[in-house]
Design a protein that fits this description.
heterodimer; A: mainly beta; five-stranded antiparallel sheet; 2 helices; 9% helix; B: mainly alpha; 5 helices
């Protein structure tokens, strides 16, 4: 499977709320981040969870989010802090909004 | 505050108020070691009854109250029970019968045979 995203791509996490086992935490849904690392293709854990073989395999990415993007000032963190999460490709869309100055 | 989602399960708690993180560590207790060993035996070949993602799915399906009130290995134990029935390795009746047997033995002060 060809990787859908490249390192440095700006992405947004899908806001789907499917029933069942998902590997994307709710607090990141709809949040915008940057692809930091391609972790390779893996059997889809959301299928493995139901005894299926997990095909087609999905690319897993490390995606970096600014804490400000995730928490909008709620909570204790320093300016410039980030959070990195492993997100599977089917939870990501290209972020086509204009780049904000940072 | 995390966005509320209709399908959000009890493990999906990122952003919820939860107080300080408990960083206390302890040596695994005997019962924790036994639960761990049982999980390894059920997960390894030649049995390999389920994979880690099925274990996660089962633990996430616990009621919010059970999820909140159960320790890490209690959650494993509940998941094992549920998956053994789901995979038709054991029936609920078999588990209940064996539990009654063990409880009766303990009441007599017998402990393990």
């Amino acid at each position: 499977m060809t990787a859908r995203f490249r390192i440095g791509d700006r992405v947004v996490v899908r806001t789907d709320t499917p029933a069942g086992h998902v590997r994307t935490p709710s607090y990141l849904k709809g949040k915008r981040g940057v692809v930091l690392r391609d972790m390779g293709d893996w059997p889809n854990p959301e299928k493995l969870a139901y005894g299926k073989p997990g095909w087609p395999r999905k690319t897993n990415y490390w995606v970096q989010f600014a804490m400000d993007e995730v928490w909008s000032g709620n909570g204790a963190y320093a300016a410039g802090d980030t959070v990195v999460a492993e997100i599977y490709e089917h939870w990501l869309e290209p972020d086509t909004t204009p780049e904000t100055a940072s | 505050m995390a966005t509320s989602h209709p399908t959000r399960k009890p493990h999906d708690m990122g952003g919820d108020p939860a107080g300080p993180v408990d960083r206390d560590e302890h040596e695994p207790t005997l019962v924790e070691r036994r639960i761990d060993a049982m999980m390894q035996l059920l997960r390894q070949k030649p049995r390999a009854f389920w994979v880690t993602d099925e274990n996660r799915r089962t633990i996430e399906s616990l009621t919010p109250e059970t999820y909140r009130d159960s320790s890490y290995y209690q959650k494993w134990c509940l998941a094992m029970r549920s998956l053994l029935v789901e995979k038709e390795v054991l029936t609920e009746d078999e588990i209940e019968a064996r539990l009654a047997e063990v409880k009766a033995r303990h009441r007599k002060g017998g402990g393990r045979p």
